[in-house]
Write a structure and sequence with these properties.
This protein is α/β, with parallel strands linked by helices and 200 residues long. It has a five-stranded parallel sheet with strand order 2-3-1-4-5, with helices on both faces. The chain has one domain: 3-Layer(aba) Sandwich (Rossmann fold). The protein binds adenosine-5'-diphosphate (ADP) and beta-nicotinamide ribose monophosphate (NMN). Adenosine-5'-diphosphate binds next to helix 1 and helix 7.
Amino acid sequence: MKRLIVGVGGMTNGGKSTLSKGLQQKISNSCIIAQDSYFKDESAIPVDNNGFKQYDMLDALEMDMMMRDVGSWQRDPNWFLRQRGLNTTQNNGTGVFVLIVEGFLIFNYRPLNEVFDKRYFMEIPYHVCKTRRSSRVYSPPDPPGYFDGHVWPMYLKNRQEMERTVSGIVFLDGLKSKEELLAAVNNDIHQEIEKLREKA
Ligand SMILES: Nc1ncnc2c1ncn2[C@@H]1O[C@H](COP(=O)(O)OP(=O)(O)O)[C@@H](O)[C@H]1O
Ligand SMILES: NC(=O)c1ccc[n+]([C@@H]2O[C@H](COP(=O)(O)O)[C@@H](O)[C@H]2O)c1
């Protein structure tokens, strides 16, 4: 059984989940694992001197749990898809199963970074990021000053670390239209799928 694991990383509100959902619809036998689903309970998140909860770091995430889920897909993608109520198409053993892992810190966690066959990173300018973020409601919601006091400085720090430790990332301009981004990445992934299919 052939498998492909694609990482869709990027800044907060860069368009990761929009792109990932579009890809899942276009790629048969694919599914998504989203890092957002692995945040620890609010009570476990430390607070800094300004009272800001420290959400934008790996410590805020249950990465062991996320790795367990990636591992169960790797062991049996068919079972994993069925567990999630997703259809699998008959492929007589020639098909390729695709896992899309999306999240803002997926390349900063080494054991996860190691599983990717393809890595994409969606970026947008500061002001666009701040504006998009201001209309999104997280749980708990961002307190006043959170973007400039926590989110953006942590993004710069995490990104610097990513660039120091990870290679082979394809950077995507998140200002392009949703349709253009989806078409380009979908085309790229289908080429990878073809390469895998051709391999004995
Ligand atoms: N290419 C795009 N152009 C304009 N707006 C976008 C684009 N992609 C996503 N958005 C919008 O930006 C916001 C954040 O998108 P989302 O996919 O949830 O980001 P992320 O998962 O990276 O946090 C949403 O309102 C979404 O509709
Ligand atoms: N899902 C949650 O429990 C939760 C809570 C508070 C903040 N967040 C924010 O989620 C962001 C990451 O997710 P996105 O990349 O989807 O924006 C982080 O910047 C973090 O501040 C998430």
